[in-house]
Design goal:
- By secondary structure, this protein is mainly beta.
- About 5% of the residues lie in helices and about 35% in strands.
- It has two domains: about 50 residues, no CATH class; about 100 residues, no CATH class.
- The strands form three sheets. Strands 3, 6, 7 and 8 form a four-stranded antiparallel β-sheet that branches. A two-stranded antiparallel sheet has the order 1-2.
Length: about 150
């Protein structure tokens, strides 16, 4: 994770946390609208006005202080115009993918699923899966992602 990753501690307005992205102003900043701290979902991140041509990467980090077991994870990406009309058709769904906690390796060894790349064209977006050519989910660890690899 980098300082630009949106998660509970840095992009949740109810905590007073705002994450500044790309263009000046709040329109392109992500916001965590739903943050399920119990681990049963859903969680929801929105960007009101993404920067045209920018690629936004979507990933899921398995984070659990209590050491719960494996989780079945789903991701749904909606692309809508600023009017709220879904120009690109139905949402794009990924999953289920099983993610596990880091165990003795701690948070650094916890699974991180690189899900998709989303590019906004000003009207709608394109969604590109980050899975392997054979469809295998792109799963690495939080430590690898945090190190920028």
């Amino acid at each position: 994770m980098s300082g630009l990753d949106c998660y509970y501690a840095n992009c949740n307005a109810s905590y007073g946390a705002v994450l500044e992205w790309d263009a000046p102003g709040a329109e392109d900043n992500p916001r965590l609208d739903l943050d399920d701290v119990e681990g049963h979902g859903p969680e929801n991140i929105n960007i009101d006005e993404p920067v045209i041509g920018s690629e936004y990467l979507v990933g899921v980090h398995y984070y659990d202080e209590a050491g719960w077991g494996p989780s079945q994870v789903y991701v749904r990406i909606y692309c809508a115009s600023t009017s709220g009309v879904c120009e690109s058709g139905p949402p794009v769904d990924f999953g289920p993918v099983t993610l596990v906690n880091g165990g003795l390796g701690g948070m650094e060894a916890s699974d991180f699923w690189r899900v998709a790349a989303v590019t906004w064209n000003g009207v709608t977006c394109s969604v590109r899966s980050l899975a392997a050519a054979d469809g295998t989910p792109n799963i690495t660890t939080h430590g690898v992602v945090q190190a920028g690899r």
